[in-house]
Amino acid sequence: MQVLIVDDDMATVDVIKNSVKWKELGVSDIFTAYNIQLAKEILKEHNIDIVISDIEMPQGSGIDLLEWFRREELPGDFLLLTCHESFDYASNAIKYQACEYLLKPFDVNVMEAALKKIILKRMETQKLQENSEYGKWLKENQNHVQVAFWSEILSGHIAGKNEIIKNEIENRKLQINVEQDYNLIVSKITEIKKDRAKMSPDLMLFVVENIHSEIFCGCPDNSSVVSMDYDNYYIVATVCQKKDSEELKQCCKLLHTVFKKIFSSEITMCVGKPCKIENFYKTFHRQQNLIERNVAFYGSYFQEDDAAEIQQNIKNVFEVDKIEQFLSEKKKLEILSYMKAMLHERIYDKTLSDRVLSRGKEEILQAVYTYFGKKEIQISGLFVDDNLNQLGQKASQSVLDMIRWTNYLIDCTFQYEESVQKNYSLNEKVDQYIREHYRENIGRTEIAEQFYLAPEYLSKTYKKLTGRTIKDTITEYRIDEAKRMLERGERVSDVAETVGFDNFTYFSTIFKKYTGVSPNQYCKK
């Protein structure tokens, strides 16, 4: 197996060449090039199996090299490197069949995993080409066949008693004992956005599968790990020989440590009770549900016996009046400390679940609504903050996420209150709005909506600041504009409609009330 490293940065080339364990991957020769032209010369002279190339280079991009490589119909695969998370070149990389891409700076372990994935794929392709008979391929690829079997068991495509499952095993020529008990470990991987920007979903799952296989099954070549991609999270199911509770706990601890060294995502693991294959389908779905509900273990691991008791009828999580009182006293730390105490009590007595957090979220919002209601401030303007909405979507995921959301919500609450209660400039803002919209059908309700205030509160505050009502201000401005238009010789009917009166008679009455003469008389002055 021969590899070519292409990058205009000599330091990057040296890091790749000297840090990857090439012999363990079966790579015998490593070539290097610092520009596209030199890379092309090497590719013409040697049978390169894998090209590791940077995308952004001054004398031609990695995509240009990949396009030329495919056009020349050279055998081999590409691993592309990029500094940009957006990876604008993705469509072209896919078009010209790049195997993988990694974000710089890359993790050496991830680089090795990407290379291993590419090498395994090339070896399988070569075997298929050498052995056209499916039976020979099947014999040499038992790992893939076994993973496919476990996938069909967990999805329910293979279901029934032991005899049915045993026949499926025999037909696939697998060495699996249906009478034996197994442990099923289900992992849920969340917060995957950052990692998916650094590597492809396929590569990430390949690394995850191999970590699970090596730690739980003692073999890095996966034959017992099934992964499922649900767009914004992954589910990984591992089938391993029955182990005692302490050994499983140590495996989970090690896996969590290794996982966090490589990824920034969160992983939550549930270890199932020993069971036979015929019960895998129910066990698998029960464990997924336990992970979803047992938010106290988010980002950690637990066994089924540790799971919380899920309550159907949830009593109050927090005292809304107490939180509202803390808000009125501007005591954010007291709110957060109180919440932590209440939630940790539920962790201790095993009653904390996602439903509890959802109920707690509703109670926090209720306290905020009450707080603003007493101040006669409309709350709708509070929720235009994208960060607040994003944190709110995750609030029932874990205690930490609930605290983060509440902390940010309180900050937004106080900032929002301060912004709407700057009464010294409120009358100026209202006057400005009237000047810009006097032609429209506006009143105190429409203006109050613009400033997220209750109409009654706005009217009372405005009159206190200016000594006149909002209605009088709107009318006075319309009449002043009407006078200017009439002085320019415009028709009375056109003026009435332009300044916001839809009834000519009413316009004449109001105009005379404010000026002492009718519009027609005003024109004759």
TrEMBL record:
Q: Which Gene3D superfamilies match?
A: 3.40.50.2300, Homeodomain-like
Q: Which GO terms describe its molecular function?
A: DNA-binding transcription factor activity; sequence-specific DNA binding
A biological process (GO) of this protein is: phosphorelay signal transduction system
Cross-referenced Pfam families: HTH_18, Response_reg
Q: Which UniProt keywords apply?
A: DNA-binding, Phosphoprotein, Transcription, Transcription regulation
Record carries keyword Metal-binding: no
Q: Which domain of life is it from?
A: Bacteria
Looking at the record, the residues that make up the Response regulatory domain are: 2-119
Domain annotation HTH araC/xylS-type: ranges: 428-525
Tell me which residues bear 4-aspartylphosphate. Answer: D54
Q: What does this protein do?
A: May play the central regulatory role in sporulation. It may be an element of the effector pathway responsible for the activation of sporulation genes in response to nutritional stress. Spo0A may act in concert with spo0H (a sigma factor) to control the expression of some genes that are critical to the sporulation process.
Identify this protein by name: Stage 0 sporulation protein A homolog
